[in-house]
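Technical annex B. To support the medicinal chemistry partners, we prepared a structural model of the target in complex with zinc ion, based solely on the information shown next.
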Amino acid sequence: MKSIYTLNSTEKKILNLIQKKSSITKNKLLNITEMKLTSLNRVMNTLLDNNLILKVGIAESTGGRKPTLYDVNEEYGYIVGVNISRIYSNVVVVNMKMDIIANEKFIMTENHTPKVTVKAISQIINTNLERLKITKDKVLGLGIGTVGPLDRENGIMLNVSHFNASGWKNADIRKMLQDQVKVPILLDNGANTAVIGEALYGYGKGFKNVAYFHCGIGIRTGITNKSSLIRTINDTEDAFGHMVIDINGAPCPCGNRGCIESYVSIPSLINGFRKEAEFGHSTTISKPIADVKHFDICDAAIYGDELSKRLIENAGEILGTGLANFSNLLNPDLIILSGPLINYCSIFYDIVEKTFHTRTYFKKEKKVIFNKGGKFKDNSIALGAAAMFLEQMLES
Ligand SMILES: [Zn+2]
């Protein structure tokens, strides 16, 4: 008997292809792989005998006998995807087809230290596995998408900032979670996991280069080329946010001036609003200035508050211009914008997209497609983390 852990590289390659294509015939597999029929038959029999794939139906005949369709066995095993972010965290359980079968989210308060967060995550996992009647031995592993910078190899979060609770700097998050859930765990930047999920199973399917931007407390970026991740040299996800867009611009927490993130992030938007409102600029927002949140500014901008509108427009033009610069160099086909600044502020998204199409260098030659939120919306990071774990298992 074989299992997913003991497949050889050809068996993994075929399983990966069937899992990605879903419902595929032997002929199609022969065309893609250029294998000999006898070799493919041997591999398919191993996968069938060990319940990794199933016969799921009959395809239309192209002359002669109707061919059998094969698909991955969705119940062979399950993967847990976890998103640990600064505003909320969430957990998904997916089957082998990457269908989400459980999903739970919680807000990250000032009490959510790594210890409390890990406990909450493991409770969610246990409750949902029990509800779904999935035994622990059916869980192949767990992927975490979180905030960088990270030591991915050792599963440690490094000099992370802006968490509401203390203890996140140098948190040994993989080991902490492994002690609780006792399955193999992979850790990566959330923007990287999100772009992998979208490229393999979401709106990125069929696109060559996909770029994913998560705009919230900071700007987190993930990029793929032919479904493979492009990693930045020091493995950070916030490099794009620190591209200088105004040489004499506002100071950025990174020590530089005029970075994109010093205009386009929840803290910079709120700080910009507070500064101007305290300086006496009139606004229709009636809340005390200290209580104003980014969604108040977005709502006020939609209803014509001049100060909010100006801040949102400025942030949108800056992000749109930054994306045009990025696109001139890296040439994505699809740009997915997500995160709380995008999801809760439609006028901001519209300005970003409009500015991008005006400012990009190749506008006549190529129309870059924009997408708001991706297919998996708030689940992108968690689902992508599970997808990344499975990719690692199926690597041939
Ligand atoms: Zn900066």
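Notes passed to the chemistry partners:
The two ends are 19 Å apart (CA to CA).
The chain has a mean pLDDT of 94.
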